[in-house]
Amino acid sequence: xxxxxxxxxxxxxxxxxxxxxxxxxxxxxxxxxxxxxxxxxxxxxxxxxxxxxxxxxxxxxxxxxxxxxxxxxxxxxxxxxxxxxxxxxxx
Amino acid sequence: xxxxxxxxxxxxxxxxxxxxxxxxxxxxxxxxxxxxxxxxxxxxxxxxxxxxxxxxxxxxxxxxxxxxxxxxxxxxxxxxxxxxxxxxxxxxxxxxxxxxxxxxxxxxxxxxxxxxxxxxxxxxxxxxxxxxxxxxxxxxxxxxxxxxxxxxxxxxxxxxxxxxxxxxxxxxxxxxxxxxxxxxxxxxxxxxxxxxxxxxxxxxxxxxxxxxxxxxxxxxxxxxxxxxxxxxxxxxxxxxxxxxxxxxxxxxxxxxxxxxxxxxxxxxxxxxxxxxxxxxxxxxxxxxxxxxxxxxxxxxxxxxxxxxxxxxxxxxxxxxxxxxxxxxxxxxxxxxxxxxxxxxxxxxxxxxxxxxxxxxxxxxxxxxxxxxxxxxxxxxxxxxxxxxxxxxxxxxxxxxxxxxxxxxxxxxxxxxxxxxxxxxxxxxxxxxxxxxxxxxxxxxxxxxxxxxxxxxxxxxxxxxxxxxx
Lengths: 91, 469
What we know:
The structure holds two protein chains of two kinds.
Chain A: E1 2-8, H1 13-29, E2 33-39, H2 43-46, E3 52-55, E4 67-69, H3 72-75, H4 79-90
Parallel strand pairs in A: 1-2, 1-3, 3-4
Chain B: H1 2-15, H2 17-31, H3 36-75, E1 81-83, H4 86-94, H5 99-115, E2 121-122, H6 130-143, H7 146-175, E3 180-181, H8 185-188, H9 191-201, H10 217-221, H11 227-241, H12 246-288, E4 295-297, H13 307-326, E5 332-333, H14 341-351, H15 356-387, E6 400-402, H16 410-420, H17 423-458, H18 463-468
Parallel strand pairs in B: 1-5, 1-6, 2-4, 3-4
Helix pairs in contact in B: 2-3, 3-4, 3-11, 3-12, 4-6, 4-12, 5-6, 5-7, 6-7, 6-16, 7-16, 9-15, 11-12, 13-14, 13-15, 14-15, 16-17
């Protein structure tokens, strides 16, 4: 099972929305994954334990794990493409 | 009929927040068109979140309360207002008996303003409505007048949507996110201090040239951004200042670390519960306004990952603790909300375009205002928390609670003052201030920008003009 870390400003608000959209979409696609949430500031310390990082905002830190920016999952514009990109990393 | 409604309502209030919350949220969910099972599950999730917050607050106050008291006796700093974090205050807000009216009042304000084209910000991020709602709840508590409470929340909403409109170009330019505005009071409130102060700093000869950057801030101060470590350090420090022995110091350190990690976990239950309602509102409104170009109102969480924001916040966090000790008359002991300082400085950073010198000056002015407003409004906030069943009073001495959210925010504090003061004086002042700001941002500023744009065309090399627009 792939592990996804969803990060936003406080690890609560927008990351909850994004994590649940990713879980729903992955379930539809038959991809099994688990999500965790954290604050953007905590990403560098945790990134190594995950297969993919999804952020709701700007993150410029350098980490080895691939990152997807998922603002579209909040605004709803371009949502499908971003979800496909995310699942693409996890197949 | 009316009697039946009132009896049911009173029974709900008597039953307490854990019962009332699921019922109220289920009703709100049904109004937004959710299925009964989904609405009920939303409500129950919020009820569980509230129960969780209450457990942690009990744990927190019973551990740190006596330590704070001992610290006061030991070294003589009078910090008896505990910062329990915005999440705890949001839980209190959502548990208010008048929350449903306030939520619909705020939503209706947004829709009416959109219809009349008074705003371009579509804000259906129901979650963040709690910042506007708490002002109404505080005003209702102080004045006993529901109408004034609702009006206060509506004024909060109107001004928040306008500030979101006015700050949108800045957010698009600095953070590079188009089509989005941030009607998150906890972030935009700082602009009330930052706009005038930035203007002033730009006009002081010499000062307006200062800028510097600090390398490796994140390497050395990064632990201030890590909930676990920060809880451990702060808890241990308070224990040490209280004169505890080593065992007790470490016990307090670990339990405060636990508090800082667990509060967000409980708060996210609130977010989870509210998500289906927010989703339904978003779908509905985007269909209604689909032919218009709107800014989608998002939580400011989308911009706080910026490196300049993080650097500024990491420096401001320890300085805020120092300010709390130094500032005469401050009673707030900063704690749980040190973690969300990035939200308080995010838009300051965008305004100064990342000038670290100005960020620190304005950031400190902002947190000073937070500490004072938080101290002043703590008694009312504590009483409201007690009304919804959070028992703060600890054995041996009264402890008050506050946070860096609610009426500690400059914007919320000013609206709160306007509605709880002598209305004949404060209402005209409030109307004039709003009208003048509106005129400045919608009439004067666009004109200035047009003129500047024309000037820049004439003389493309003139740097000062480019900077001032």
